[in-house]
Model the fold of this input.
Amino acid sequence: MKPEQLLRAILPDVLIDNFDVVEFKKTDDRFEIWLDEKKVQLREDRKKSKVIAYGFGEYHSIQDFPIRGRATYLHVRKRK
Done:
């Protein structure tokens, strides 16, 4: 099984389609997954040279359903 298939089984497809997994940490009582938004430009934005990527905003933490008895935290960061 490929890692992406495993992630799709655990996380919503919207997250996998739009975010890259940056880091994963497992402790005795929790899973923590850090996600950064993928760099995708719209067709209209490709034609305009005025669109500039300014990096990322702050991480926002979301507590998700427990996985295998451990609390699951998603740390999501969007592009500016």
Notes: The chain is about 25% helix and 40% strand. Residues 5 and 57 are 28 Å apart (CA to CA).
